[in-house]
Structure formats: structure tokens, C-alpha cells
What we know:
2 copies of one chain form a homodimer. By secondary structure, chain A is of the alpha+beta class. Helix content of chain A is about 35%, strand content about 15%. Chain A has helices spanning about 10-25, 35-40, 60-75, 130-135, 155-160, 250-265, 275-285, 300-310, 325-340, 350-360, 360-370, 370-385, 430-445, 480-495, 515-530; strands at about 30, 55, 80, 100-105, 110-115, 120, 140-145, 175-180, 190, 225-230, 235, 240-245, 275, 315-325, 345-350, 415-420, 425, 450-455, 460-470. In chain A, the strands form 4 sheets. In chain A, strands 12, 13, 14, 15, 16, 17, 18 and 19 form an 8-stranded antiparallel sheet that branches. The longest helix of chain A has 18 residues, at about 480-495.
Amino acid sequence: MDSSGSTSLGSGPHLEMALDQWRAELGPENVILDPARLRAVETATFGAGNSVPAIVRPGSRAEVQQALRIANAWRIPVYPVSGGCNWGYGSRVPSASGCVLLDLGRMNRILDFSEDLAYITVEPGVTQRQVCDFLRERKSALWMDATGASPLSSLVGNAVERGFGHTPYGDHFSHVCGMEVVLPNGEAMETGFARFEGARTGPLHRWGVGAYLDGLFTQSNLGVVTRMSIWLMPAPAYFQAYFFTCDSEEGLGPIVEALRPLRLNGTLRSTVHIANDYKVLSGLQQYPWEEAEGRTPLPAEVMKRLRKQLHFGAWNASGGLYGTRAQVAEARRLLRRALSGKVDRLQFLDERMLRLAGRFAGLYRMLTGWDLSRTLELARPLVGLLQGIPTDQPLASSYWRKRTPPPAATDPDRDGCGLLWCSPVTPANAAPAKELVDLASETLLRHGFEPAISLTMITERSLACIVSITYDRQVAGEDEKAWACYEELLRRLYAAGFPCYRMTSQSSANLPPSPGYDGVLRSLKRTLDPNQILAPGRYLAAE
Amino acid sequence: MDSSGSTSLGSGPHLEMALDQWRAELGPENVILDPARLRAVETATFGAGNSVPAIVRPGSRAEVQQALRIANAWRIPVYPVSGGCNWGYGSRVPSASGCVLLDLGRMNRILDFSEDLAYITVEPGVTQRQVCDFLRERKSALWMDATGASPLSSLVGNAVERGFGHTPYGDHFSHVCGMEVVLPNGEAMETGFARFEGARTGPLHRWGVGAYLDGLFTQSNLGVVTRMSIWLMPAPAYFQAYFFTCDSEEGLGPIVEALRPLRLNGTLRSTVHIANDYKVLSGLQQYPWEEAEGRTPLPAEVMKRLRKQLHFGAWNASGGLYGTRAQVAEARRLLRRALSGKVDRLQFLDERMLRLAGRFAGLYRMLTGWDLSRTLELARPLVGLLQGIPTDQPLASSYWRKRTPPPAATDPDRDGCGLLWCSPVTPANAAPAKELVDLASETLLRHGFEPAISLTMITERSLACIVSITYDRQVAGEDEKAWACYEELLRRLYAAGFPCYRMTSQSSANLPPSPGYDGVLRSLKRTLDPNQILAPGRYLAAE
């Protein structure tokens, strides 16, 4: 995937010279050659073979500029990471072998914040937890949007990968502006109104005046984003979570048809998250080795038994209602009406009910035999996510096929968890959603994996589907099997008209060609990065 | 502003050769040299001196490609227009002298439409009226968003200029995707998922995968957009317009502070339009020459008298509430509470009330002396705009300083109406909004113009302010006075931190420099348009 054609990249005397200069500019403690640390960043949740000769850790925009100038001088490719929590998509492993890792984690300052105008301006090393704590300490009435990735993941990193969360601000790239970017040649620029000195609207208006360039620096290798303003939402007067399940596997289509009009007419202001049984089970527990008598993939009859036993459906959805009590009540009424006859259980939950339910869990268990406390334990982080509170609970599902329980401090890379995310997008109507799910399920099962699938109604018209290929990297041959499955799935999805919204750092070459676009992108790349030193190949289809 | 440095542009033997080839490719009837038609497109609503040697009218994407290849071969600059209704910002006049006008008006096909998924795919010549009629004929339950520019203005043209309207889909560029673009060299490309053959999500998802390039082709001279999908909104179950006025000139700040939280929390889902007294008066009638005893600008005491007489305030706002009856009722309650004590009149109006009021206008007049029918006549198009129905009523205000009434078929260019729009953006809070209005008012009055100002809460955090410099071009010296006023206003706005969201085709050189951004934009321009043939100088700050 390295398009420079040079074999000396990332090694040899040029690298030595670059390392010397980086040490001189950033301090020797910020140029890391420790083999254990290099091995760690070379490890993803799947077999990603690219080697990392060094890690450099700039502490400021000026140091990023210096670092890139040095990279250009010695033609050493670099690969930037912010939080490094790109789970399922390649973690911290670069897009090409020999890239020095440009770790932006030290740039972790919150630069600006406005309670009135509801935004925060951050550097790329700022984590979800940091912003969440910042808001709590200030007793702010604002919420951030969080992804389920990890409290340690970077807001900037997620936004430039165009990730999504669960609140009305769930589509992250729609809620950021005023970027500062260091170009591959080391020059810096700002976008939107932020480019004008003294402008008051840099963090408040996305387009600015003239060509809107922010999109160039998302899912690309054209620049390193070193600052970004992120919009925050006011905590609503009242909040309720909703959960519903459907026991029939055929239930997805009618659910999507019921929800789309409510998204389109603004009644549902946030993403709706719909998970299949495999997805839910992998969140509830690890692989039921005993019930499956050691076989994989999970036999259908075991899954059916577990669905009954653990009280979840073939389809399981969650979302939030935000507003005044009257607004939430009306949304509840409309949702209830729309889902009537299409779901088997529909539950609304607010903070008070969650507290009460916790108190009566024991009683409930006595009466029904269902251990509600376990469900509540799992519901709480999800309800938190709907309120923008980050959690690493969803990460536990990456331990699905492990034979030992997840440790207290999860680290999927370190622990050999196998996780590959494939994320096609489908129109938000019944037939294509079903077709996509059938295609993905058939493919994964045939390759011996459980098709854990979620569909998130990220916008009014489309569903982002996350297909998880989850396995145990410590079982020999599984890495290869998983990658083969992933590649076949990608091929079939593109052929069926379902391109993905996001690619792993290792799979840009799998993007199908689109001549006009690719040609423009390549000429922009040559213009802005003539030495091809920034994340070679990232999000560029193979030529 | 023409950065090519060549003096032969747009004239001489090269032009003749190009014209011959255009005739051969597009048909002689689509290459226009008729002096009257050339004079018409060289005319804007202010003194825009650029000459147009010819108009070429491609009828398809392939013909646009051919037209641009020929332009490159003979180094003839071209300037694309869609509907040509860029009133106040330069109409159809090119950004540089000698540009051939690339009139896309013949490309007026509606290419795709989905009632379920609520979008329409159009070519650049498709007008607001056309889409409105298309939806009506199909008895569609979808609404478009309309600007007040004209029923004949282009949806694509407005979106690439990042214009705005009045419904929840008012921020146009936020509601479009899947562009087809012809690059300056004649190559074509598609954006978003539309770039992949057979993808089903091209019109449904804005970002696609990989760098998001759509923004490059808005407010720029990097490509000609030949197709675009535009999202439509479902007609709400119930709709109400609201109007409020405030008699105090100091009332703007408190109003903005009251509205911002309602925009931020999603209660107000659409733009709110706030107009000062000058703006309202110029919509109600022409300049009151008699009352002002021939003097300009309008004396303050005359304005105060007219406010009382015609029942409008120092500040006057309008907006729409969309939803079920219960959702609208709750929004109404919250709006009423937020504005309590801050406005002098607050009125809600739905279709039924509008019909009733029309019936009782005569009685009302008898009782109050106020001619309600005139108000209703003016309210109806505004209420229509809030429902996405285009109108040219706002255009009548460009005849403000004329001494003869506007004709039935208005045409501000032809009729010598003077109109220059300056459109700074301010944070949506009290102090800067007031500061901006004071700055603009003082500047216009000092130059002898009435400061007709509107502020539109286009997003939750910012107000787009349109300052109209309205005059009579047939009065000698007024063009020069207006331009001097405009340039001083721009300078002062930038110095005060209020950059504009949009520039006239003649004023890109007035953009203040922003070295990093400008450098990138220039290198992109050189890469994509090495012969500088597309709209030279447009949205590029002077070097």
C-alpha cells in the first residue's frame, strides 16, 4: 500500500538521522524505541503486519510541524494517532509498514469552552473521560456525545474518522468546526471562520466563507488535525431511555419502517441502535462454550434457548428521548403507536426508575426467576451513553470467544482479542436492511463466526451497520480465517450496493475504484504531500 | 482579480476558435452573442463592470465536459451560473472580465425522487418552482426548503453558495449529498457513496467513505456541480407560524438570549428570522418620499411614525413550528414563556386562522383603523416560505428607492434596482449581535443608506445577518456611493471579528488574507485548474 516505491522507508541511515533530529526538537524522552512499546503499537485486534520503527510524541502544534518537516527531510513516513483506540479498525497500527507512529496523546489541552454557546475546543489527545470530567467539575449543564469505544478514546480522533455516538449529537462530524490542521509539509492552516484572526464565530459556524475544506481532513491522509471545536448539547429538562425487543428474526424490516418516519419528522432526535441476538449475547456474556458443547459457530438452537433464558429478542433496540416532560411524553406516545404490533416488549426508563428497579431487583428475581440486577448492570452504561457518558463496557464483547474472563482493565490489543469491524451503510427501509443483514449473516456463519450485527439509524435516511467478526487471536489460524471472511464480506457488500462508511487502517486497498474521485484525491495528495510521508495509502483505493 | 495574467482572455482569435468549437459541440443556438442578451448578463444590482463576450448553454453533463475542454484548449475563462438569481451578490456577472458565461439553465431535469426516503436528485437548472410543482403534482407529502430569492432560482446554485431558507432544512448545504462534478479540466467525478457504481446510499448519506470532498465545490471555483441530491422534509402533521415584534430598539439582545436556548434544545427546529424596522418597511412599501420630504436617508422620526402607523416594531421576527398538535402546542408554550416580557406582540397563525382573518379583515379595519388585509397579503408569502413554498415577494424590496412602483414581473437587474448584500455572521448572543447591528447601522446611515437588516438564527449558535444596501442605480453616483459603503462595511466587520458567510462575485479580493488556508486553496486551484479557466478569482482572497 506504500505508494512511494522506495524500499528504504522507515529504516536505515535516513531513519537514524530523522530520529536524531526528532530527539533534538522534541526531547529524547519523546522519541521511543523501546521494543515492548513498539510491539504494543504494532498490535491490533486482528493480524495487522505493519512494523513501527519508532514512536514520536509531539507536545504542541509547533512540534507537530517540526516533526513533519523532519519526516519530509528524511523521507520517513509517519502515521498519526490521537487516542489510539481505533478498535476493530486497526487500533494504532499504521497503514503502511515502516511508518513512525506520530502519537498525539501529549496534546491533551482543553483550549476553549463556552457554557452559553455550548462548545468545547480541544487538542487531539483530549479523551472522552477528560471532557466528561471537565463538564462535571464545572457543574456544566452541557452534555458531550460519547462513543462506546472507551473513555480513553479521543474526541478528535473519532470525529476525523467520522464515528458516531448515541445522543442527538451522535453524528460527530456534523457537530465540529474550526479545525487547525498541520499539512504534510509542516505548514499549518485553520478552517472555517477560525482562519481569520479575531473572528468570533470560529467555533460556532461550520462553513465559514469560501471552499469548505474540513472534509478533506477526515478519513484521509492529507493533514494532521491539531485542534477542533466540538459542539455540546444542553442537558434536556427530562430524559428517558427506551428499549424494545422483537422475538421474530423477520422483525427488523417492520421496525425500520416504523422508525424512519419518526426520525424524519424530528420526533426521534437521536440515533436508534438496533442489535441482533448475537450482538446482545456478546455484550451479556462470553461464548457459551458449555451449552455449545465446544462447537463454533454458535448453534442456532443454543441461541434460541439463550434468548428465552436471558430475556432478549432476535432484535433489540435502544435510544433516548430528550426534552421537556411534555415533549418526551408526546415522543413516547408516537413511538409506542409506531411500534405497536411490531415489537414484543417496549420499555421506557428514566434515572428514577433505574434507581427503583435496582432496589427491587431481588424481589423481581424471586417472582420471575430473571436476574434483573445483571440486566440493570448492563443497562446502566447504555443509559449513560445515551446521556453522553463514556464507558468501556461495550469493549468487553471483544472477549467473546476467550476462554478466560475479561480482566478488570480491558485491553483488546494486549489480550489477543480478535475483532474486525465491517461497517456498511444501508437505506433506512425494510428490504435493503434485511438483505444486508442476510448477506452478512450468511457470510460470517459460513466462515465460522457469529454474525454480531448492529444497525444504527445515524441519520433520517440511512442505517450504519456494524458487523463484528469476533474471535480469539490466540487460536492458531483464526487471524487468517477472520481476514478472509472480512475481505469476502467487503467484496460482496460492494457488489450488492452497500459500501462501508469506514475502513480499517489495513484495508484501504479493498475500496473499489471510482476513477473520477480517486484521480482527484491522488492529485490532491501529490500536491499536499509530494513525498508521501503522511499515512501512505490510508483511505486511498489501490491503483 | 483574474490571476492568469494574460491579456488575451476572452477576446481575439482564441475566442473565435473556441466559439466555433462550442457551436459545433453544443449547437449554434446554444452559443449566444446577441448584444442585448450579453448586456443583460453583464448587469447586476450594483456596478459590476465585468464584460461577457458570449454565453454558452450546455444541455448535459457531457456537454459541460466538452465546453470546459474547449475552454482549456483556447484558454478562455468561463463562469458558471445555474438559475442566475444571485441577487445582491452579483446576479450573473462573472468574477472576472472576459469570462464566457456557462449558463446551466438547460440542464433542468429531475433525475430521481423518493417519497419514502425523502430526497430529490436534480440538475443545476432545476428551479424552486419546478420542484414545488413536481411535489404538488405528485401529491407528495414532502416539502422542499425555499429561499425568498425567487421561484426561478436554482436549488443547486443556492446550495453551492451555501444559502439558507426558513424550514428545519433551512441550512441547505447540510441537506445535500451525492454530487456529480465536472472539474475544470473536463473530467467528471462523483462524491459520497454516489461515487461507487450501484451503491444504494448515494442520495442518503453525506460523507460516504474516505475524504469528504463536497465542500470543495461550494463557494469555490474548483468544479461545476452538475447533479446533486437534496433532502426533503415530510410535511408535518400540523404547522403554525409565529410572529413577534418588539417596539424597543434595545430589544434585540434579550430576544436572541431567549431564542438561543430553544434552538439549542431542539424546541425550535427551524431558522428564526429577525428583521429590523427598515427591513420590514422596505417589504411593506417603497421609500416614503412624501413623508420624508424627499430627504435620504430616512429620518428617524419618520420611521418611528411609520412603525406606529403600520403596526410593526423596531424588531420583528417570524418562524415556524412543525410537528404533531401536541408538539406544536408545547413549543408554543415554551416560546411564549421565553419571550414573555421581551416582546410587545406575539402571534401564532395557522392556515385556518389565515383564512378566517382574511374573511374578517374588513370588520377589523372598521374596529381598529388598521388595514389588516394589506398585512395578510404580506404575511401569506412569508407563511408559505415557512412551508417551503417559493415566492418572489421579498424581491419587491429591491425597488425600495425607486420612484415608480415595481412592475408585475420584477427583474431587479433590468430595472436598475440597487441592491448589495453584506452577510456577516455573529455569535447568537446579545452583546455581539447588538454590536454588529450598531456597526452596520452607523456605517450605512453615514453613507446615506437605510440599514435594512435581518438576522437569521441559521444554527443553534450563530446568526447570519444580512445587511441590505438598497438604492436606485438610475441616480447618478449611487453605484459608487453604495460600493464605497459596502467596502467600508466589510473592512469594519472583519476588523470587529464578524466575517461574512458569502461574498459577491465582485468582492473576493476584499476577503482578508489567511495565509495557511489561502496557500492550500491556491495549490488546489493550480492542481485542478492549471489554466485558471474556471471563475478566476471567485472566493479567493487577493494575493
